[in-house]
Amino acid sequence: ATGRYDKSGLLFLQFAKLRHIVKKYEASNECYEKALKLQDCNEIEVYYNMGVNYCHLNQAKEALEAFQKCLKYNPNSTNALINQGIAYKQLQEYDSAMAIFNQALKLSPNDSDVYNNIGTVHYAEGRYEEAVVNYLKALEIRPDD
Questions:
Q1: Residue 23, Cβ neighbours under 10 Å: how many?
Q2: Rounded-to-integer distance, Cα 99 and Cα 140, Å
């Protein structure tokens, strides 16, 4: 019987990924929830992907909860931190977003996405010169973007 559940859980994980690709974010998260119940799956990946889906749905509070669960399992996930900061930006909680981005920057000082997001916070706050400095740093790290 356990094999059946394992296969069902894997199927729900695959369905979740496919639904994300076709931008069916709510359906994707429903599949992730079912996968979590059916199998011992990679919680880091599941909660991270659910958080990304919630961001796409402009459900920032739910996204924050998902990223927090992801970070519980892997507190050094730069991608989870960046997306947690993005969720704070969606809520216009710029101080919280900046604190998270600075935490990500300490972990990954050469990550252009961190600098880009710091730039967007400065831009949203009307601090355009600081925004430009961070955008330029992002381009310096990854000039092809």
A1: 10
A2: 23
Interatomic CA distance for residues 92 and 74, integer angstroms: 26
Residues with Cβ < 8 Å from 39, sequence gap 6 or more? 5, 6, 8, 9, 10
The pair phi, psi for residue 142, each rounded to 5°, is: -130, 80
For the beta carbon of residue 99, count every other beta carbon within 10 angstroms. Answer: 13
Locate 20 and state its tokens. 């994300």
- The whole-angstrom separation of Cα 103 and Cα 85 is 10
Q: Are 85 and 79 in contact (CB under 8 A)?
A: no
d(CA 104, CA 80): 9
Are the CB atoms for 85 and 95 separated by under 8 Å? no
Alpha helices in the chain (DSSP H): 2-21, 25-38, 43-56, 60-73, 78-90, 94-107, 112-124, 128-141
pLDDT single digits (tens) 59-94? 999 999 999 999 999 999 999 999 999 999 999 999
- For residue 94 the two structure tokens come to 């710029």
